[in-house]
Recover the amino acids of this structure.
């Protein structure tokens, strides 16, 4: 009787720099997935099994790692949910050699190999690693060459007096690849410049435009999809006021140069507006201090009750002091008081969240109750030991350096929702499990068992 092979949980990662075309459901990402799934199917005899989770990124460049699907993949690898990563080509992971080496270090730390369906390379051997670095270097070179060719094509197009693309600023339309003044829209642009030059506030201009139902530029993509046509916000106003296209200029060759289209704003009005923008900008030109990362340790995790993220904001220096806040997005777009939500001092919010976190760690049973029952009810789960280790961590927490406090907060806090009268704090179950495995690092047999139990429960949706 033959011994059964251990199951290898395989995750497919696919990526495309182009967003999905609604007219073509079978795009590049779909093709990559199918090719990888076929390959995994051919390895069933070796114990390979495809996991249920789909890891993909559409419309993301390989020049960076700020991709939600890719981050989800790395997170599940850290949790021990994946044994093999399968890609169509290695450049789907990244097109930067430095990033590739960082990715491989992370995967190697968790004993997770990468398999490329179209590039049969054994990365456990030094020759295979050399070949991989060469392939990734060429991918990086190819990305840079494509970027340079696009840049040169754009410069040549604009230099010849033609406009590239179907989108253009408010006040113009594209006809025969050239910018032509739209009389009705150009009057709106001139109005905004004139009112700002007369020192009318952006909030007043914004409220008036929205009250009159005036929208941002609406245009159609080459595929026929409508874009734009949204209500104005503060960013749209400032973008309009800083756009030198209205002076009759275009940007190419790393500088603004005279274009072939007619200007909407005369140089005198432009200079007056530019001087006002510069003056108002310098009033609050102080920049975040070096400890901004600590004061905004909850960056990206604070949301208003309306579901929109709250933005970190650092005031200009007043009597030598700066004040850090989280501000509702709606107030940035429409003015103070528009959201009905409070502006929160970052330091106060940090203290409240840190206090809540410490309280839970001091009596961790409440937190542990949220873990999957197949883990906590297992005979191998030592509840008293886990509770003791977490309570010890809480007692030491006040002695942690700010950078370590920040790491703990980012690990355990998933989301803070701000209501008019309260805060809702959501904790990360995956982060809690990571923390438990870290405090039990001296008990590797428990770490392996707990990781397997948690992975199994999560894969079954428990």
């Amino acid at each position: 009787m033959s011994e059964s092979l251990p199951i290898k949980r395989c995750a497919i990662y696919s990526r495309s720099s182009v967003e999905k075309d609604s007219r073509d459901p079978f795009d590049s990402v779909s093709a990559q997935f199918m090719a990888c799934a076929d390959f995994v199917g051919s390895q069933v005899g070796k114990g390979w099994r495809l996991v249920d989770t789909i890891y993909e990124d559409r419309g993301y460049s390989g020049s960076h790692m700020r991709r939600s699907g890719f981050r989800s993949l790395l997170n599940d690898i850290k949790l021990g949910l994946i044994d093999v990563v399968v890609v169509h080509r290695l450049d789907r992971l990244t097109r930067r050699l430095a990033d590739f080496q960082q990715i491989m270090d992370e995967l190697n730390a968790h004993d997770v190999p990468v398999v490329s369906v179209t590039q049969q390379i054994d990365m456990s051997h030094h020759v295979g690693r050399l070949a991989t670095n060469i392939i990734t270097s060429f991918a990086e070179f190819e990305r840079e060459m494509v970027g340079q060719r696009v840049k040169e094509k754009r410069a040549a197009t604009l230099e010849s007096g033609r406009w590239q693309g179907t989108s253009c600023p408010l006040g113009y339309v594209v006809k025969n690849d050239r910018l032509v003044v739209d009389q009705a829209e150009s009057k709106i642009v001139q109005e905004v410049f004139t009112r700002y030059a007369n020192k009318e506030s952006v909030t007043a201009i914004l409220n008036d435009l929205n009250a009159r139902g005036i929208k941002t530029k609406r245009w159609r993509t080459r595929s026929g999809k409508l874009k734009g046509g949204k209500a104005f916000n503060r960013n749209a106003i400032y973008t309009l006021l800083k756009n030198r296209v209205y002076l009759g200029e275009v940007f190419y060759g790393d500088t603004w140069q005279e274009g072939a289209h007619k200007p909407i704003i005369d140089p005198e009005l432009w200079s007056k507006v530019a001087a006002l923008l510069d003056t108002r900008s310098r009033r609050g030109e102080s920049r975040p201090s070096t400890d901004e990362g600590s004061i905004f340790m909850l960056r990206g995790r604070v949301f208003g009750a309306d579901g929109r993220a709250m933005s970190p904001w650092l005031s200009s220096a007043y009597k030598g002091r700066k004040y850090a806040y989280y501000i509702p997005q709606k107030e940035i777009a429409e003015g103070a008081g528009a959201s009905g939500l409070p502006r929160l001092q970052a330091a106060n919010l940090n203290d409240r969240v840190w206090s809540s976190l410490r309280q839970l760690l001091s009596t961790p049973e409440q937190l542990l109750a949220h873990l999957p029952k197949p883990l906590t009810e297992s005979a191998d789960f030592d509840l008293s030991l886990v509770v003791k280790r977490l309570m010890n961590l809480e007692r030491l927490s006040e002695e942690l350096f700010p950078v370590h406090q920040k790491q703990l907060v980012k690990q355990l806090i998933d989301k803070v929702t701000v209501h008019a009268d309260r805060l809702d704090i959501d904790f990360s179950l995956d982060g809690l499990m990571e923390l438990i495995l870290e405090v039990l690092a001296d008990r590797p047999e428990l770490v392996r068992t707990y990781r397997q139990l948690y992975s199994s429960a999560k894969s079954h949706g428990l």
